[in-house]
Amino acid sequence: MERKIEIISREQHAHQVIEPDASIHLDITESSVVYLPGNHADIMSYSRMGDDLVIQMKGGGIIRCARFFEEDEKGNHSELVFGESEDDSRPVVHVIFQDLVSAGQSDAVELLGNVELLSSIDPLLYSDDDGGILAPLLGAGMAAALLGGVVAADESHDHGKRDRENHHDDREGPSIVIHPVTGDDVIVREDISGGVTIEGSSSEPTGCKVVITVNSSEFSTTTDRNGNWSVEVPTDTWNGIEGDIIVVAVVTDESGNTAQDDRTVKVNTDIDEVHVFINPVTGDDVVNVSEAVAGVTLEGTSSAQGAGCEVVVRIGGEEFKTQTDENGNWSVDVPAQVWNGLDGETDIVVVMTNETGNTAEAERTIIVETSGPHIIVNPITGDDIIDTDEAMGGVIIDGSTTPDAEVVVVVDGKEFPTTADGGGKWAVEVPEDVLDDAAGIDSIIVEVTEADGDTATIDHPVTIVTGDIAISVNPVTGDDVINATEAADSVSVDGTSSESSGCEVVVRIGRVELKTLTDEGGNWSVEVPAEVWNGIDSETDIVAIVTNESGNTAETERKVTVETSTPTVTIAPVAGDDLINAA
Asked: Where do the record's region annotations for Disordered lie (predicted)?
């Protein structure tokens, strides 16, 4: 069971439990021990703001401990420890802040945090007859660099030094702790490929020997000046290992005393590391009021090896579930009501579960700006496509916004102003000639100005396809005559149109239909096989029909002559009787 953040009263020993989160504000009302689960090596920096302790995590989170440095009646402030077990009897890493100075509430003063290993948090709590082991040392504000009971202090703090030395003498030999391996004690294929770092901390300072045993292989190192240590276990050591194994660490102090810690690690080379990512939201991670009113699509990628892996998206207290596609991509639509009430920085959390039940989590902070005017543009002509028939007589563009706001619709540089009514509805009419000139544009602009001067602008996508649609058939075989030799092979029928790439062309010859698409120049071509011409031996109509992206059509015909019968030659009798005499 994972331990949560705790605030433990030094006087009453009462526990207050707080759920871990990316950014946390801890309200400390009395001198306490702040217990953080995990590894102190995950901390980027410590700083002091007034009496608050601000902890910056390497992963980007922030923990602020309000009134941490506020002294109690014994002259002591609160203490910070890190641990990895819910059992208070397990060792903890105690952080001691050096060179404490007062700081203004708005000024952050960076602190140096040295560490020591304690067998439990008990020495930091008050008992009935003891002001606490650390009270004289920390209450006096002594700047000390300490590890494993080694204290440097000036002569004016002999009493504090004596207490710390007595505490060191009370220890039962050295101690050592193995930190979580790969962060979660699960080693997957990606971890093994580059070797695995195993690290930890101990009560012993520089140069004390540490031996790590992994699957009968031993790796030696020494502690640094803070008692920390690490070893690299190469790839070949992990080859052939599958399932749970025990990693053992043994430290030997200067006197030859030893301490041991062991940690169970799961090796699973059948799965890869699991990842999930969130793409930038609305392109810039800022959701404005117009985007929020219309709803916003959240999307991203993952390491999922195919479709069907569950993705859970959390935002604004709501959950949305979806699944990855065949490429590991995912997306969800977050409706307008979720964005209502959100204003400022908002966290999006995504959790993906892969095929083998392993999970990955990602977080992205965005800014929601829901103050100011909103704009909604209703679909123009129902589908945001204006064709020739719809443009005739002009087109109404309408929508909604702040009541009584000024609205300007801009189409191809031409402005059409109006004012929203008391319900926020607005509408403008764009005449046919403007739409004809705007053929080919891909959006219009709508600008809104409220009475207090606040403005908003959006681009609304639209396709304008006006003007005559046309299609033609080029001369077939060059002379519009298809002879038997040409008919015996396939014949190419081609032509041009007024439409761009991708518009459908249907060619009809007799009862046969052949389909193709226009290219980017509006050209088209079909091959008519020999069997189509069989049985035709006269004038024949070729009909070509093109349909544009708005659904408008144009049709043309071309007459061709098909001569598939075999020609005959007759020779008249020569000289009347086919006899040629001397005369």
From this structure: 155-176
